[in-house]
Amino acid sequence: MPESLLLPAGLFSLSLAIAAGLYLFTARGYQSSDSVANAYDQWTEDGILEYYWGDHIHLGHYGNPPVTKDFIQSKIDFVHAMARWGSLDKLAPGTTVLDVGCGIGGSSRILAQDYNFNVTGITISPQQVKRATELTPPDVTAKFAVDDAMALSFPDASFDVVWSVEAGPHMPDKAVFAKELLRVLKPGGILVVADWNQRDDRQVPLNFWEKPVMRQLLDQWSHPAFASIEGFAENLEATGLVEGQVTTADWTVPTLPAWLDTIWQGIIRPQGWLQYGLPGFVKSVREVPTILLMRLAFGTGLCRFGMFKAVRKDVTKA
């Protein structure tokens, strides 16, 4: 959908009116890893998110400058764009990959099928693991398990690649998250991360309207905090496990259309929520204010879509 396309005024007003009460009284603020797991269990069980977002619980890549494209295809394109950006397309078949925050396994399956990698996907949500396993054919070299990214169960130096998309905002301690990602990476291995980030408020503090917007973005989708691109790069480098410097990029422009496209999918494909009756409609409309706030935040520079690439140092040679 073109970014200039406006929602029909009546539907837009109705959506906001219905969502307003729910929005304020059903917030899913972060309390612990259990609150994150419960939120994703619910989103997975009701099936609406999968109906609209497909296998990929992440934003799409629309090019730079963005072009109109199919919503699901944009998500597939994102995985390939991230793989190329991280130089994973140059790696040999059989490369071992840990997908941290794998959702229902969309990215894991692409990495296994299109790049011939051996992928292990982990998520805090048992329902996501169940659904990811159901969606994965037996001949695809991707498997899934429940695990906590703040305390990964794998030994040091277990994987050639560690991959993570939009999991960081759920992590209460970004420094611990950074260390765990690098700890399980083999020396010389590649870390590639894509995340929602906020502007570095050490440089430009949040103003009077940005503070309440950020509070809602945290509280509505079980986020303890957003890191800045600069801040998380510093977290990675502070581990002492990075060879050289962390490479970063800002992908806000190519991912920005996904926010309004998400709402547009509910309008042009109403059967997704109609099949669940009134509860399905309420669940769908309830997310509209947060999606609109996300579009506002990313469109004004309050939030940024950050990309991170690092190579694991061989500390035995230090």
From TrEMBL:
InterPro entries: Erg6_SMT_methyltransf (IPR050447), Methyltransf_11 (IPR013216), PiNMT-like (IPR025774), SAM-dependent_MTases_sf (IPR029063). Residues 97-106 are annotated as: SAM motif I. GO terms for molecular function: methyltransferase activity. It comes from the Bacteria. Residues 157-165 are annotated as: SAM motif II. One of its GO terms (biological process) is methylation. Signal peptide: none annotated. Residues 98-193 form the Methyltransferase type domain. It holds the Pfam family Methyltransf_11. Keywords: Methyltransferase, S-adenosyl-L-methionine, Transferase. Residues 184-193 are annotated as: SAM motif III. SUPFAM superfamilies: S-adenosyl-L-methionine-dependent methyltransferases. Belongs to the class I-like SAM-binding methyltransferase superfamily. gTMT family. This is Methyltransferase domain-containing protein. The lineage of its organism: Bacteria, Bacillati, Cyanobacteriota, Cyanophyceae, Synechococcales.
